[in-house]
Structures are given as structure tokens and as C-alpha cells.
Amino acid sequence: MIAKYIKQEIADLNGTGHTQAYYKMKTTPMDFEEFVELCCHEGAMPRDAIKGVLTLVSEKLALCMAEGRTVKIDGIGTFAAKLGMRGDKLPDAFELGERRHNAAAIEVKGVAYRADNELVENCRDKCQLESAGVSRLRKPKTTIEERTEKARQYLRKHTLMRVDDYAWLTGLARTSASIELRRIADDPTSGITYTGSRSQKFYKLRTEK
């Protein structure tokens, strides 16, 4: 089967004269039963045995990661638990002045996965690509100054803001919202800064010194 890719173009939001382009695979979902059926076609193991092995791997992965282990499965990749603040603890977590938090305020927020090079190479060797067209994200009607002011107004009410909040607020695509927020936070005159990183990155109003 030939896979398809989409070229996504993001309009110049900041007047640099350049349009950014990204490429992503056009994907279709495959559920657990379909994957098991695909494995059964190899004829090496019966369906119930394949399902049992996959279920066991899932359960033991969860257990090992819960114990603080990093698990490497050859040909697949490395798995480790990611921690973050509980959602109901976020306002307190980023108040001015460092505050200590006990274990009750922290939880597993996701799983970090790093693909094994063998898996990537195997996928690359099997993959045949063709274009599925271009997706263009148009430049919004509002200016960056107007969008920054919307963000400040939001933060006066809500204290913290995620990228998804800014995307909803301004109508930007999430990728565009993330790029623009980084530029805003890097500008000390915007009145907005950030705390945390990656999935635990939040934007907030700068405090006057």
C-alpha cells in the first residue's frame, strides 16, 4: 500500500516574508483487533496467543514505568513515564515564589517514547510515498498586536494559558499558535512570559519588578 503525505503551509504571521512548510503523513486508524488480524496472517501464532502477548506487554510496561524504570524493547523503542502537576493543582503550582509540592500534587501525565533506530529504518524501507495535496493555513484577519492583547485579557482572568487556549482565542491553527506564542513570550514588551516546558509549558503575565 502506498502512503500519502500532506504538505502544510503556514502563512507568514510575523511579516518575515517567508511561508513555513511542514510535511505530515496522511494516516488512517488501525484498531487492536485489526492489528492482531494482520499479525495472524504470518501464521506463526494463533489469534488468542498474539492478543495475550500484546496484552501482557502492555500491562508489564505500565508496571515497570510505574516503578520508575525505563523499558527498552529491541526493534520497537524505549518507554518511560512522564510526570506533571495535577490539573487541579496548576494555579497553585506557578504562583510567585517557589512552593514545594508533595507527591499528591504530581501524577503521571503521559509516556515518553523514543523509537528504536531499527524500527525507523524498517519503516523507511517499506514506505512508498505520494502526495495527497497541500493544506494552506491562511493568515488571520487580526494583527499580532490584537492577538497579544486578547491573550493579556485572557490571562487577567485565568492566570495561566496553554497553546490550545491561545489557538481557540485567536482562531490560529495549533502549530501557528505555538510559534506565535514563543515570539510573544520572547518579547519583553509584550507583558507575557512562560513557565515550565513541553507539555507542562504555560504562559502567564509578566510580573513587574
Write a concise synopsis of the structure shown.
This protein is of the alpha+beta class and 209 residues long. It is built from seven helices and eight strands; from the N terminus they run ββααββαβαβαααββ.
Outline the structure in words.
The protein is an alpha+beta fold and 209 residues long. The strands form three sheets. A three-stranded mixed beta sheet has the order 2-1-6, with no helix packed on it. It has a three-stranded antiparallel beta sheet with strand order 3-4-5. A hairpin with a 6-residue loop joins strand 7 and strand 8. The radius of gyration is 22 Å and the shape is flat.
The poorly predicted ranges are: 94-98
**SSE sequence, one letter per element:** EEHHEEHEHEHHHEE
Q: Count of DSSP helices? A: 7
What is the strand arrangement across the widest sheet?
2-1-6
Radius of gyration: 22 Å
Largest sheet composition: 3 strands, mixed
